Amino acid sequence: KMASSYDHAITVFSPDGHLFQVEYAQEAVKKGSTAVGLRGDSIVVLGVEKKSVPKLQDERTVRKIHKLDDHVCMAFAGLTADARILVNMARVECQSYRLTVEDPVSMSYIARHIASVKQHFTQRPGLRPFGLSTLIVGFDYDGSAHLFQTDPSGTYHEWKANAIGRSGKTVSEFLEKHYTDEIAKSDEACIKLTVRALLEVVQSGGKNIELAIMKKGQPLEILDTKTVEKLVAETEKERDEEAEAKKKAGGK
């Protein structure tokens, strides 16, 4: 009952300190497709759950992973139309930064910019919050890899690995359990952990997963379906072998 009195205007706090419209926007994120981001020592990986598209639709028009600049890439969970607007704003900011400073944009700068745009939409009457969370990955000028997450309230944090969207909490817990500094040293291990994390919640393997990788000093690469399916098969095999070994160890 209290929510219904305080959720009409975005700029009004409820007596117990909530901004309900922002919280509702966060619920929209939880309904979005799962997205996973992971940062290694010399690689960044984004993996997203791909919803099956209607037979006659061109699937190239359904994109959850967007390049913002040569060295920055973003995945999102939530409202696709809102994401398109935010992606365009971020791309313009990346180019504007290059023109002004004559350097590529730093990862912390573009994450902060996206978060600031989102925050702006939580404090002005007549606007509504962006209904999406983002995972922003890339490399700074000094070659260091970064992963940032932003949410509808305008907060942003840097992570080693994280997940957003439907079942984001489950996947984040999986990553927490399995991500190690050892894995961060191996590009292949980083890719496989991302796939394995997504397989916790995505059904029917490779067809429903989109993967993008960026290595230090190299352009963004979105892996084709064949490569993803091969990775999924390898990952599933390794997972089954591990489970088998555990079973045997437990039986002794």
Which keywords apply here?
globular; 10 strands; alpha+beta; 21% strand; 5-stranded antiparallel beta sheet; 252 residues
Please give a structural write-up:
The chain is of the alpha+beta class and 252 residues long. The protein has helices at residues 2-6, 20-30, 80-101, 107-120, 168-178, 181-185, 187-199, 225-251; strands at 35-39, 43-49, 65-69, 72-78, 132-139, 145-150, 156-158, 161-164, 209-215, 221-222. A 5-stranded antiparallel β-sheet has the order 8-1-2-9-10. A 5-stranded antiparallel β-sheet has the order 3-4-5-6-7. A hairpin with a 3-residue loop joins strand 1 and strand 2. Helix 5 runs antiparallel to helix 7 and helix 7 (187-199) crosses helix 8. The N and C termini lie far apart (57 Å).
Task: Quickly describe the structure.
This protein is 43% helix and 21% strand.
